[in-house]
Task: structure prediction
Amino acid sequence: MANLDKFWAFQNQLRGPLPPSWGDDWLYILDISLNDNQLEGSIPASWGPMGETLVDFYLQNNPKLAGCIPTGLEKFQGRPQICAGTQLTCRVCGARRR
Result:
């Protein structure tokens, strides 16, 4: 799936963790829309490199997603389309509070 540029699976009642392997497989992806599902766990650290090309990233309304945003995805920290309706801290992992 190296040529995949969009993955839209919003409002599909998906359950479970985000697959770490997507970070290795989808290095050139532009858009991930996984909002309004039942995903759980954290955003895998392996997803960080996707930040090089990722333009749109939607995870909101997955109430069991928690943790921080991996290094590499800094441009999405604090954005409602990532954190609203989740338990994500909406800060990059290891970032200090001001």
